[in-house]
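protien #1 (seq + structre)
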Amino acid sequence: PVVLMHSPDPAKGGHGSVGYRDVLLEVFDWLEARIAAVVAGGVDRSRILVDPGIGFGKSLSDNLALINGLALLHGLGCPILLGASRKRLIGALSNEAPARERLGGSIALAMAGVAAGAQLLRVHDVAETAQAVRVWRGLRDRALVGR
């Protein structure tokens, strides 16, 4: 697979301030253009995954808008990868918890991604996140747990 991750300026590491008018639409358009370029370069579209680039050149409100609007990215026709584990936005929303203390927030963001249909999650705490996903799926689909 090829992962196309949004970053406003990859040469600078993507952590500079940008100032979006509509971060969700701008990220969508950016990813759409990258998909077209990669496909034109010979990569089969079925091999492409998209990542909104949570934390890369985005403010707290930008990141929240992307997570809340993540389902829009399905319109790109590629699987969505969400990498929000231990991100700074969790610290900003939880009294500046250090990265090692962001498991709860990481799971909350992962579950928001799953609820929005993200097909892949990039996480630090695999067992805990996998357990949360299995429980969430059990709540949503009783057929998974039997009667």
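ok now protien #2
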Amino acid sequence: MDMQQQIAVLTLGVFDLERSTKFYQDGFGWTPVFENDEIAFYQMNGFVFGTWLKGALEEDTKARELPPAGAMSLAHNVPEEGEVRAVMETLVAAGATLLREADAPPQGGVRGYVADPDGHIWEIAWNPAWPINEEGHVVLGV
């Protein structure tokens, strides 16, 4: 069986859903397409992003305890080099913690890191070798 290369839903465990929803709305400008007392879902370009109260996520998965945030990172790529610092400033103003100022990595481009209010790490990046197409998807190897 060949399995399609795709992610349908990516869900982060959060401690305070109201704080998290406010951060993603004020920081990234994202609006939930569904929310209740435990979870918020955002329609993304090709998948759904969710934030779910950590305890409810642990209960649903039957995990004794989910690993701490920060054991992975997510990335938000921007189409223009100058947008990296501006997006990071907006996220910090919305409640993110600055982890690494934007700078130029050895492989090129510009990147910096912030953590959302629950400690989930976000790389904000511009990479000239990874263009963003009209649908808003990062495309490798073009």
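The chain is about 20% helix and 30% strand.
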